[in-house]
Every structure is written in C-alpha cells, then in structure tokens.
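>> received
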Amino acid sequence: MNCDNFTKLAEDLDEKLDHLKLENDPVLVFSEKAVNLCISMLQLMRGIVLEDGFNSQNDEIEFFKNIKPKVFGKLYYHTQIFNYESMRAIGSKKSQRNQLISEQDKLHIFTRDNLEFYQYYRGHC
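>> returned
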C-alpha cells in the first residue's frame, strides 16, 4: 500500500478524535473512546500491512518511522490519561495534587532515563 493512504488514515483518526472532543464527555469517557479509536486504527493499519504490504521499501520505512509511531503515541497518551483518571484519588484537592505531582515526577524520570534516544529522535525529525 502507498504511504499516502496510511497518512490519510492517520489524519482520519485525528478528525475522529477532534469530533470526540466536541461531544464534551467527561475526561474518563472521552479517553476511553479515544483509546478504542486508536486501537481500531492500529488494527486496521496492521490488517492492511499484512494483506497488501507496501509498494516500496521507502513506503515501509516511512510507515514504521513516522506514521505508526504517531498513531501509537496517541494511543499511549490517551491510555495514560484513562489510567490516571480511573485511578485518581477521590480525596481532597491536596491528595489529588500530590498524585498529579507524583505522575509528573515519573515523566521527568522517564525523560531523563531516555534522554539520548529523545535527543536522537528530535535531531532526525
């Protein structure tokens, strides 16, 4: 399959996610719907790859280097939001704030631990 078709599928996912935002669902409901959309898109792309393959090696490289990681990144993002919202402390604002700070600290540690890869990726995009 041509990479332009995969790009169109990724853009279609973005449009569907934008439409979901307009529904003004609670964050937990929105993130669950977003996760399901992303999973469906990745499954669709996987099926196309398995059935049709790629037109060229460059299309394959473009798909695995740029298109799929962006879709997977959206899945990861919405999954993290869903997980956080479903486990968010029901207590006081202070306990919720402490939990959010803890999550933020985890992100900083992850970024620091993977700094070389992050710099490599940002330098080659």
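>> The chain is about 85% helix and 0% strand.
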